[in-house]
């Protein structure tokens, strides 16, 4: 089943048009950024913040403009990934998303992370301190790193959901994905924690990351417990029960964290569990209760072994896409440059069919 719902068709079309316009603009903008043309600080660029349309940033630096365009392309790609995960039939009580849409969403998340990583490594270092000080909070380096890590975390979360649905995915694969997801969310949370921002957006993002971190940790301990429980030694079963009980406690904490996130400004509706967590919200309490009863006698006999084992560490599998800037527009090679007076709206309207 393809991702062709009316919501995606409309939103995806607009995103595709705007992204194409930005890519074309980017190749022209690169000419201004080249030192040999001597135009880096000739043009003043103006941007307005979405949260406060009255606050305008005016900067005469072509690398700032390039940074802003790439940042917008990353945001548009994240929006497109989000659209892929919107169920085609909104009338259903359950959130059903096809496997193809989920895989497409993962690809888009990696693409967005690639834009952000390029900004961090190749564009931000070119901006002087006085311009960096004017950047809005969501364009600070730590926030960009956090969003990149979060994109990878959510991509891994989707992969775990696909693994749960697959009959071929082993417990080892599921545990690894859960542990990698946990690492990504931990990195993202750490990055946002470093930012001294008082706005609602950073606080909301921090609460979201805490909620997802707790969910990921619960999943990691659950699958780690299932693997330990396959051992034959009493210590293996005791450690497994400790994992299940920890997972159950973490799930309960994650539900509270979700509520705190939803009630923080701007207030949002609590999303229903989906993907792997829809499965784990039921399985973790059931397994914790069942295994505690099954191995209750061991827990009494082996009290010295009742220590929560460490989770294994894995090399992270998902990597951001490698982004490269396009070629400079050929117009810069003609020696005579003329700026066509055309608004973005007029540019987008060129692609609309005549009626």
TrEMBL record:
Gene3D superfamilies xref list: alix/aip1 like domains
Origin species: Sesamum angolense
Pfam families: BRO1
Family: Belongs to the BROX family.
InterPro entries: BRO1_dom (IPR004328), BRO1_sf (IPR038499), BROX (IPR038898)
Domain BRO1: start-end pairs: 1-355
Name of the protein: BRO1 domain-containing protein
Top-rank taxon: Eukaryota
């Amino acid at each position: 089943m393809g991702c062709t719902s009316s919501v995606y068709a409309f939103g995806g079309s607009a995103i595709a048009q705007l992204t194409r316009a930005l890519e074309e603009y980017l190749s022209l903008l690169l000419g201004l950024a080249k030192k040999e043309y001597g135009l880096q600080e000739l043009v003043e660029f103006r941007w307005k913040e979405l949260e406060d349309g009255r606050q305008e940033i005016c900067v005469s630096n072509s690398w700032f403009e390039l940074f802003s365009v790439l940042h917008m392309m990353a945001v548009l790609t994240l929006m497109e990934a989000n659209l892929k995960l919107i169920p085609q039939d909104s009338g259903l009580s359950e959130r059903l998303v096809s496997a193809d849409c989920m895989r497409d969403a993962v690809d888009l998340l990696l693409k967005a992370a690639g834009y952000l990583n390029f900004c961090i490594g190749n564009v931000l270092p070119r901006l002087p301190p006085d311009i960096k000080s004017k950047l809005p909070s969501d364009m600070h380096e730590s926030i960009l790193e956090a969003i990149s890590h979060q994109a990878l975390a959510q991509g891994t979360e989707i992969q775990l959901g696909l693994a749960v649905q697959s009959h071929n995915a082993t417990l080892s694969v599921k545990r690894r994905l859960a542990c990698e997801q946990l690492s990504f969310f931990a990195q993202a949370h750490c990055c946002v924690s470093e930012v001294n921002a008082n706005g609602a957006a950073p606080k909301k993002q921090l609460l979201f990351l805490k909620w997802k971190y707790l969910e990921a940790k619960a999943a990691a301990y659950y699958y780690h417990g299932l693997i330990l429980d396959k051992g034959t030694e009493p210590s293996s079963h005791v450690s497994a029960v400790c994992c299940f009980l920890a997972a159950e406690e973490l799930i309960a904490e994650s539900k509270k964290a979700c509520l705190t996130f939803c009630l923080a400004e701007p207030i949002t509706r609590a999303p229903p569990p989906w993907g792997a967590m829809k499965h784990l919200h039921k399985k973790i309490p059931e397994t914790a209760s069942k295994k505690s009863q099954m191995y209750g006698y061991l827990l009494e006999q082996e009290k010295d072994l009742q220590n929560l084992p460490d989770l294994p560490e894995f090399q992270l599998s998902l990597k951001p896409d490698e982004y490269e800037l396009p070629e400079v527009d050929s117009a810069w090679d003609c020696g005579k440059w003329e700026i066509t007076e055309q608004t973005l709206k007029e540019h987008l309207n060129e692609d609309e069919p005549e009626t």
